[in-house]
Design goal:
Largest sheet: none
Number of strands: 0
CATH architecture: Up-down Bundle
Helix content: over 70%
Distance between the termini: 41 Å
Strand content: under 5%
Number of helices: 19
Structural class: mainly alpha
CATH topology: Growth Hormone, Chain: A
CATH superfamily: MFS general substrate transporter like domains
CATH class: Mainly Alpha
Oligomer: single chain
Number of domains: 1
């Protein structure tokens, strides 16, 4: 019965994340909002930046809350805040209201909701830790696949503000409806007959860390930096996708929106694919490969001017971006245990928040000052090149009192 139940919960987790992940369709709103409020690229992009920045911190508090009260109340609150924030954005008469509703309120809802499926599935699937957390956050990446085209057509038919109203209601229904099924497994539950493989065991901590203990290890901070760097690279492109496609490939807004939808699928696929790969080659080597790929891709991107070429290059970049989020929850659970992964990984998601401020604003300012995307994209490539060594340095934390030490003493 529990075996069937956990797969149902996995499906509900994907739907929750798809509703939340619609935020990644933000780039289709950028030009209409710029025209509506006669504002600059950087000022409009700040809405998306606030949402993701706030999300990173809200995920930490959501992780603490779900450890105390369980996942259901947290995810239902998330749906109300996220959907309600987007709905309230429809009443905007200027950017400050948009910042407060879409950015602040919506961002809090995003953070509360995002951490719940991850925490729940890590506990239900110790045997497929990387794959299933990848599947869950893959839903987040896929959210924009549906939303980008729908939102673009709504904007053209009813205007950008009314589009926020329709989407806000839809997000609330999806997140709260699927979130009702989020529950933890019974205490001590694990799949029948399962034991970790040797390679998995060598990369896992022998006990569960509390949040304070995890923060006293250098490994937590190293993983935070890995996530920050990977996120900064990908989110800079996500924040500018539609206008970048229009500029580089000389396509219409409709075509650019379709391209956004297609490459957003790369975000979703990457979360599942790289998480699955990490179960085989370890999390740290997975990050090293993703960094190496991004060096070449970001350097190449500004010289590509065809629809097909831009779609392929950006698709792979977003696969790497999504791969960071698909792999990192399992990375954290491996190093610090699954019991407190909610607050431990929730706090680590502040890296996402800081990256949302660094990446999109950096590329927006460079685009504005240089008149093109080449400089910003080449800077990102250089950062990724320097960072390749980092994932190769990390190892599981060794703490006195772990079972392996006790066993050695007994022998």
């Amino acid at each position: 019965m529990n075996e069937l139940r956990r797969w149902g919960i996995a499906l509900a987790a994907i739907l929750v994340q798809m509703g939340l992940g619609a935020v990644y369709a933000w780039s289709v709103f950028r030009i209409p909002i710029s025209k509506l409020f006669h504002s600059t690229i950087a000022n409009v992009t700040l809405t998306f930046t606030i949402a993701i920045f706030v999300m990173g911190f809200a995920a930490f508090f959501g992780g603490l809350w779900l450890n105390r009260r369980g996942p259901r109340i947290v995810v239902l609150t998330a749906g109300l805040l996220y959907g309600g924030g987007i709905f309230l954005a429809s009443f905007s008469n200027g950017l400050p209201w948009l910042y407060a509703t879409y950015g602040l309120i919506g961002g809090i809802g995003l953070g509360f909701g995002y951490i719940v499926p991850i925490s729940v599935l890590v506990k239900w699937f110790p045997d497929r830790r990387g794959l299933m957390t990848g599947v869950a956050v893959g839903g987040f990446g896929a959210g924009a696949l549906v939303t980008a085209s729908v939102a673009t057509r709504l904007i053209q038919s009813v205007g950008v503000l009314h589009t926020f109203a329709y989407l806000g209601v839809a997000y609330l229904i999806v997140v709260c409806g699927a979130g009702w099924f989020m529950t933890n497994p019974p205490a001590g539950w694990q799949p029948s007959g399962w034991t970790p493989k040797p390679l998995q065991a060598s990369q896992r901590s022998a006990r569960d860390f509390r949040l304070g203990e995890a923060l006293r290890t250098w490994q937590w901070w190293a993983l935070w930096l890995l996530l920050f760097l990977n996120t900064s690279a990908g989110i800079s492109v996500i924040s500018q996708e539609a206008p970048m496609f229009q500029e580089l490939a000389k396509v219409t807004a409709i075509v650019a929106a379709g391209m956004v939808g297609v490459v957003s699928l790369g975000n979703a696929i990457g979360r599942v694919f790289w998480a699955w790969v990490s179960d085989g080659i370890t999390r740290r080597y997975t990050f090293a490969v993703m960094y190496l790929l991004q060096v070449a891709l970001f350097w190449l991107l500004p010289s590509v001017h065809t629809v097909g070429g831009l779609t392929v290059v950006t698709f792979i970049i977003l696969m790497c971006y999504g791969g960071g989020f698909g792999t990192m929850p399992a990375f954290v659970a491996d190093y610090f245990g699954a019991r407190n992964v909610g607050p431990i990984y929730g706090l680590m998601l502040t890296a996402w928040g800081f990256a949302s401020a660094f990446g999109p604003l950096m590329i927006a300012h460079m685009r504005q000052s240089s008149g093109g995307y080449e400089t910003g994209l080449h800077v990102i490539a250089a950062i990724m090149a320097v960072s390749i060594v980092m994932p190769l340095m990390v190892r599981p934390p060794k703490v006195s009192g772990e079972p392996v030490v006790v066993e050695a003493a007994a022998r």
